[in-house]
Design brief:
The structure is a homodimer.
Chain A: H1 3-6, H2 15-33, H3 48-58, H4 65-77, H5 84-105, E1 115-116, E2 119-120, H6 122-126, H7 128-146, H8 155-169, H9 174-184, H10 191-215, H11 221-248, H12 251-254, H13 260-263, H14 269-295, H15 300-315
Antiparallel strand pairs in A: 1-2
């Protein structure tokens, strides 16, 4: 785990190697934590059928961008590795929130999507009622992960992480953004309205990931403020690029149905400002994210993963 | 607030007066906390349309049994009133979890109920997508309430309350019980299976309410164990009585559609053991709950509200 951080900043940062190690760690943790095993403090085991739907929604799929942001932000502020147990739990918790939002988003009463990550969506595979419950249970499990009873995470840390996650996921965060999205179908939004919608819908949880990772260490206020700026720019960039890919990529590359937003008459950056201006805006946001990292005044070796992830988000093909 | 606790235990406990004071307190708190106001730490305000659906689901309705249990359990262990701010937040948080579960439960893909507390259900009033999102946001808001950033609740307390609530609501609690319920339609369950289903579906959050209230004080382990027994017996009793009322009460008394369980071929205590044995079982569970309170060795004046609530749950008419 030390290689990436202690490497010279000048040779190109080996993002692939950094990622594959952390992705394996997150995957192992999710495998272990999304389970029918009776959790500590619970009287009963979780029913197997529900957990099967939860595992289907979470495991073996997804880019795991949010967990990677949590871990990269934590490593940026805690090069000695302190708080790593909390960071891994936070990484998995944000992924559970993301996963539940996709399960509910795909349901017939929302986007009615049948394909996700190249697989049938949860409600297609398990039925609508099970999808609804699996999503609900995934949200609760996220907060279970953040509040272990084994002493591995200090109570103050648990409280802070729960606070950040609840606010990122709730009515003034992700769920709020989805509500605006829902209400905006068929309406023309201003650029400011579109930005606000995305800052809530996608941005809040991406920013929350960065902040949760950072708060697993003990960063100074100026560092925290800089990482906040990084997270905000990166969160918005993610959505702009998502909108771009919705029109430029095909379904097999995306692993989900392409062109849906346009078909559904949803406002997007591309529909609002056109493809070229959207692409320029994404690059501008990437530059803002990188400038924020410089402003943090953290050693370059510690912020390389965050920098590389932002670059990956903006320049991805799917 | 001191009257009930300092009154002699021998005259009949004035549950109505005790309740009306606490119900007003909970109602005021929910009015204030389920709001479009920008929460502390949030960049954006919650969208008004989403919050309207959340408020519709939560305010001006419901027996508020779970909040009352939180407050009664807290008062049982903290006669000096310490921890009252945490207890009020916990009381509202469990109600938000309960409310979200009803919103999702009523949806067409689950129970497809159009009437709740004598009003159109949330999806009938606001549409399915909004009901889904409002439920999701209510769950997140529950954890927001437990993690205030104003210093009113100690971080260790916040962590403990989040832990208890997440486990009561999740796959080994309420959501798990709903999944068993879903899978059991049209199947004959044994009494043990039925009991397990209800211990998760309804019992976990009722027990969780008692434990969250108790943990807002500093009870000794033996007291906590006795309150755990009280909560478990009372939680099960609640469901047995619910099953009884489903066949003995009419819709206008219940404020929801009566006879649904039988119509839906859902296993219930009444279908399993008949009406008379179900009624005897409810009384037996009530006795167990009262015995547990005696075993707590808490002064009678401190446990009167818990005792009266258990009695109310078992002997209610709706």
């Amino acid at each position: 785990m030390m290689d990436a951080r202690t490497a010279s900043p000048h040779p190109a940062f080996a993002l692939d190697a950094w990622m594959s190690e952390r992705l394996a760690q997150v995957e192992r943790a999710l495998q272990a934590w999304v389970t029918t095993d009776t959790p500590q403090g619970a009287v009963h085991a979780a029913p197997a059928a529900l957990v099967e739907a939860m595992r289907y929604a979470v495991l073996d799929g997804g880019k795991r961008l949010r967990p990677l942001l949590v871990l990269a932000a934590h490593e940026a502020v805690a090069p000695d590795g302190s708080g790593a147990a909390a960071a891994l739990r936070a990484a998995c918790a944000v992924e559970l929130i993301h996963a539940y939002s996709l399960v509910h988003d795909d349901m017939p009463c929302m986007d009615n999507d049948v394909l996700r990550r190249g697989k049938p969506t949860v409600h297609v595979r398990f039925g609508e009622a099970s999808a609804l419950l699996a999503g609900d249970a995934l949200q609760a499990l996220a907060f279970e992960l953040l509040t272990p009873e084994d002493g591995s995470v200090a109570p103050e840390q648990q409280a802070r992480l729960c606070s950040l996650l609840a606010r990122a996921a709730g009515s003034a965060g992700m769920a709020g953004g989805q509500a605006i999205d829902l209400a905006s179908v068929g309406h023309r939004l201003t650029e400011a309205q579109l930005r606000e919608m995305h800052q809530l819908k996608t941005g809040a949880l991406l920013l929350g990931s960065v902040m949760m990772g950072a708060r697993c260490g003990q960063p100074q206020a100026a560092v925290l403020a800089a990482l906040q700026d990084y997270g905000a720019a990166m969160g918005l960039a993610f959505q702009v690029v998502d909108d771009i890919l919705d029109v430029t990529a095909d379904s097999s590359t995306l692993g989900k149905t392409a062109g849906k937003d346009a078909d559904n008459d949803k406002p997007t950056y591309v529909s609002l400002m056109g493809l070229e201006r959207s692409q320029a805006y994404a690059q501008e946001l990437l530059a803002q994210a990188q400038q924020a990292l410089q402003r943090s005044a953290l050693p370059l070796a510690q912020t390389q993963a965050l920098a590389a992830l932002a670059d990956m988000v903006v320049n991805r093909a799917h």
